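Changelog note: in this version the structure field was regenerated for every chain. One regenerated record is shown below for reference.
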Amino acid sequence: MRRAHIINGLFAGVLALAWAGASLAGPPPSHLREHTITIDATKLVPASWWQVPGVTPSIYNSDPDNLDAPKTSEKRDLQLRPGKYKFISFTFDFPFAVNLDGTLEYAASLDQCIDGRGTRTLVVRCKRMYPHGGERDAYYDPKP
C-alpha cells in the first residue's frame, strides 16, 4: 500500500513539473517563429506560375492544367520562418530573406523589379532583370 502512495506521489510530481514547464515555455524563439509573408506577383503579364522551393508546389510539373503552384494572377500568403528563400518563375528567380522580426530583405540590385524591403509583402514587378542586375556597364561611361 505504501508503495502505491509513493508511486502516485511521484506521478503527481512529474505531472506538476510537466504542467509548470508547459506554462513557462511562452512563445517560440524568434528564429522559429513563423511570419505571414505576402507574395504579390500580380503585375506580371501574361499570368504564369511561381514557387518558393520547400514552401509551395513546384512549377516544374509536366501538366500545366493540374499545376498546384501559385499563379501570378493572385497574391499568396506564406508562413515563413526567418531564413533565406528563393522566388522562382519560369523567366526570373532571385533570393530573398525573412529577418527575425518578419520583414523582408533582398539585394539592392533587385530594386528595379522588386518592392517590399523592410515590409512583409514582396512585390514582383518584372519578368526579367536588364541589364546585369540593373547596373549600367562601366564600359559605356564617357571617358575624359
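Spot check on this record: The chain has a mean pLDDT of 81. The domain at 35-134 is CATH 2.60.40 (Immunoglobulin-like).
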